[in-house]
Amino acid sequence: MRDRTLGVQVIAIGNLTVGGTGKTPVVEKFARALKNQGRKVAILSRGYRSKPAPFWVRMKRKLLFQEDVTPPRIVSDGTSLLLDSESAGDEPFMLATNLRDVIVLVDKDRVKAGRFAIERFGCDTLLLDDGFQYWKLQGRRTDIVLIDSQQPWGNNFLLPRGILREPPKHLRRAHTVFLTKSDGQNEILRNEIHRLNPSARIIECVHHPLYFEDCFTGERVDLDFIHGKKIAAFSGIAQPESFENSLIQLGGTLVYTKRYADHHRFSQQEILNVINRSKIRQADIILTTQKDAVRIARLDRRDLPIFFMRVEIKIIAGANNFDDCVRKICFLDSPKPLSSLPR
């Protein structure tokens, strides 16, 4: 299919593997940095597991070879949150919640969504969430790939035998590589990345907890709130171990865990079951991730408080590479560290 260019900056952020690299906080960090530099940013997502058009509408278009002229779903217009998580999808809704001044659109056709962002909102920068394999939108494009430093290539097999979407040698398309969940001891992996792509910038980062927030009231508490407490945890994410370990590192005692499939949408009864089992284990509090919190059904009964952990990306190596990447996108020459800019 023919590539399209829309005359604006395109930043594609994605993975070589499926799930679990912590992509959403990286998208958020880039969107915030670009916004702080005066760019008019739109995040374009395909909206994984968001609510699609009715089946009969999709079949009619397919049978009649009709072009889909339905406008993209506007999750946020840069001022207001306009859709819920079921209609928008987990990640777009979470991004729109955390970035109230950034446009967030959902559409499988991101060329159409990009054109809409430019014409409707005057955007000059398009961030493709999970966009490394989306080749239709080209032009002035920067490709950013995330690699989980704990299991960079899985078992080294492509789908469906492994978790690789494409071979590691395709890393040569990347301009910048983020090593997520880094412990700072990645010399062998860094050397391998340099062998595959000698010119790529490498940035190492961790998911840094900020605070806990009540899923229903919005109350925020400091991280030391869970120190010494008996905690229960539930999640529906690709790698729940990282989340659970972070709670232990913050001083909580994990007395109950419940893991669901990635992107699982929780029923009210499932949450009540978690509450009941947490009470049996004498938990003081129930914790989950922000990504999961957007999929929790409202509850009339709350015997235990339920909080989610808010996290952001913290760069531990390669901050100059991040600053340089943002400057090149924004055509900046100033050496002033972007980390000194307001959030």
CATH H-level superfamily title of the largest domain? P-loop containing nucleotide triphosphate hydrolases
CATH hierarchy class name of the largest domain: Alpha Beta
What can be said about the biggest beta sheet? Answer: 13 strands, mixed
Q: Approximately what portion of the residues adopt beta-strand conformation?
A: 25-35%
Number of strands: 13
Q: Choose one word for the global shape.
A: globular
Radius of gyration: 21 Å
Number of helix segments? 10
Alpha carbon gap, first and last residue: 39 Å
Order of helices and strands: EHEHEHHEHEEEHEEEHEHEHEH
Mean pLDDT: 91
Q: Concise description?
A:
The protein is α/β, with parallel strands linked by helices.
Set out the fold topology.
Blueprint: E1 9-15, H1 23-36, E2 41-45, H2 55-63, E3 73-77, H3 85-88, H4 90-98, E4 103-106, H5 110-121, E5 125-129, E6 140-148, E7 176-180, H6 187-196, E8 201-214, E9 220-221, E10 230-235, H7 240-249, E11 253-259, H8 268-280, E12 285-289, H9 290-293, E13 306-317, H10 319-330
Parallel strand pairs: 1-5, 1-6, 2-4, 2-5, 6-7, 7-8, 10-11, 10-12, 12-13
Antiparallel strand pairs: 3-4, 8-9, 8-13
Helix pairs in contact: 1-4
